[in-house]
Design a protein that fits this description.
This protein is mainly beta. The chain has a single domain, classed as 7 Propeller (Methylamine Dehydrogenase, Chain H), CATH 2.130.10. Helices cover about 15% and strands about 40% of the residues. The chain has helices at about 20-35, 40-65, 70-85, and strands at about 105-110, 115-120, 125-130, 135-140, 145-150, 165-170, 180-185, 190, 195-200, 210-215, 220-225, 230-235, 240-245, 255, 260-265, 270-275, 280-285, 290-295, 300-305, 310-315, 325, 330-335, 340, 345-350, 355-360, 365-370, 375-385, 390-395, 400-405, 425-430. The strands form eight sheets. The protein has a four-stranded antiparallel sheet with strand order 1-30-29-28, with no helix packed on it. Strands 2-3-4-5 form a four-stranded antiparallel sheet, with no helix packed on it. Strand 6 (about 165-170) and strand 7 (about 180-185) form a beta hairpin. Helix 2 crosses helix 3. The longest helix is centred in the N-terminal third of the chain and has 27 residues, at about 40-65. It is found in: Nucleus, Nucleolus.
Length: about 450
């Protein structure tokens, strides 16, 4: 009964009467907690955090045999502070070499174009979805399909386990527990990422769900839709929280990190927006000429976006205009005798680093290096891939990049590339070793 009702109408658990036994247990638990003062709790948690860090860094030191564990803990704490401030920028782009095309793995399983994908936080699994409504869990090492949830026919939503329309977006929680998928039929489905068992359906959006992101370190989920609004959900509690309004056109993409805010791309309204959830306020950024189709946060203070005018923009959250704008980032195509830029259909950023990737239907994925202070964009190399690149994700460790390829664009059917394969491509990013010469082979 609750599945057919809008999420906003779901009965809140606050309205249930509490049994005397449960009340007594709660009071006893509260009394036990009182024995520890706030200062003692802070100290205990700090000690626990440092101990966990020490163990992690000792394990890493054993592998690398370089620094003392004490130095490693200090470095790690410095990195954590910089990450929170949005100033951490690991310089990894200079070490990336062009991948050997023979080592790019192509995984086939979806009948129609792949529209979205995510990588599990431990880099062991990839989840992908398609216009055929199917959902697949892949093992990275073997390339095997561990789980397939097929798409259903239109109108079979009540009986069918999975989606019965195009899946447009997906997100995975930072602990790897929950997977969320959103479709053209206004539904958000929540899955157990380990078993691919469906847990909940969230309803409430009035049009296609086009963007999803879990807030890092929590089970709070942000969703964006073609109905122009952003909704906030608590997946752990199976609850709807609130709705935010502001965009003047369909929202095409959304991302978030650990702060209580998210960023969205507003399609043809030409704006990127930062939503501050507690303050119920938003910041509006503008700089692209065309429809802004994809967005990704690089760190807590910077983001990258791509548009159908072929431009790629780097933003700082303190400036309303792009810090740098690369026009016609994928070059131009001849469409019906007119020269038009290739649309940027996907962007990816290796978190807290200077390495970016962009996808289009230009025949290649491009890797970019963002310069000091995110004020420069330097093209590094091209990775040949035929088809529409509808989704791009770096592994957490940065040692591979995954592309979701389709014969058509994620949001429509403007063109079709017949020779493209609807697939997942795993692209190894070989880091240069210090022993090798600084001269890298010419990019293809």
């Amino acid at each position: 009964a609750t599945a057919s009702r809008p999420a906003e109408e779901e009965v809140s658990s606050d309205s249930e009467t509490e049994s005397p036994l449960l009340g007594r247990r709660r009071r006893e638990a509260a009394e036990e907690e009182v024995e520890e003062t706030p200062q003692e709790k802070k100290l205990r948690l700090a000690k626990q955090y440092l101990e966990e860090l020490r163990q992690l860094e000792e394990e890493r030191a054993e592998e690398e045999e370089e620094l003392e564990p004490a130095d490693l803990i200090g470095n790690r704490l410095k990195e954590d502070v910089l990450e929170q401030k949005g100033r951490l920028q690991r310089l990894v782009a200079k070490d990336v070499q062009p991948p050997d095309p023979a080592r790019i793995r192509v995984l086939r399983g979806h009948q129609l174009p792949v529209t979205c994908l995510v990588i599990s936080p431990d880099d062991r699994f990839i989840f992908s979805a398609s216009k055929d409504g199917s959902l697949i869990k892949w093992e990275v090492d073997s390339g095997k399909r561990l789980c397939v949830v097929p798409g259903g026919k239109k109108g079979t939503e009540e009986r069918h386990m999975g989606h019965a329309s195009h899946v447009l977006c997906m997100a995975i929680s930072s602990d790897g527990k929950y997977l969320a998928t959103g479709d053209r039929n206004k539904l958000i489905m929540i899955w157990d990422a380990a078993t691919c068992k469906r847990l909940h359906i969230f309803t409430g959006h009035r049009d296609a769900v086009s963007g999803l992101s879990f807030r890092k370190g929590t089970h709070q989920l942000y969703s964006a839709s073609h109905d122009r609004c952003v909704k906030v959900w608590d997946v752990g509690e199976n609850a709807y929280v609130e709705t935010l309004f502001g965009h003047q056109d369909i929202i095409t993409g959304l991302d978030s990190l650990s702060r209580e805010c998210c960023v969205t791309a507003g399609g043809r309204d030409g704006t990127v927006r930062l939503w501050k959830i507690p303050e119920e306020s938003q910041l509006v950024f503008s700089g692209h000429q065309g429809s802004i189709d994809c967005i990704q946060l690089i760190n807590e203070e910077h983001m990258v976006s791509g548009a159908d005018d072929g431009s790629l923009a780097l933003w700082g959250l303190t400036k309303k205009k792009p810090l740098v704008l690369a026009r016609q980032a994928h070059g131009e195509q001849d469409a019906q005798g007119l020269q038009q830029p290739y649309w940027i259909s996907a962007v990816a950023a290796l978190r807290n680093s200077d390495l970016l990737a962009t996808g289009s239907h230009s025949g290649s994925v491009k890797l970019w290096k963002s310069g000091e202070g995110f004020r420069k964009l330097e093209h590094l190399l091209d990775i040949p891939l035929v088809g529409f690149v509808n989704s791009l994700k770096f592994s957490a460790a940065g040692d591979f990049l995954v592309a979701g390829i389709g014969q058509e664009h994620r949001l429509g059917r403007w063109w079709r590339i017949k020779e493209a394969k609807n697939s997942i491509c795993i692209i190894p990013l070989k880091q240069k070793t210090t022993a090798s010469s600084p001269e890298s082979p010419g990019s293809s």
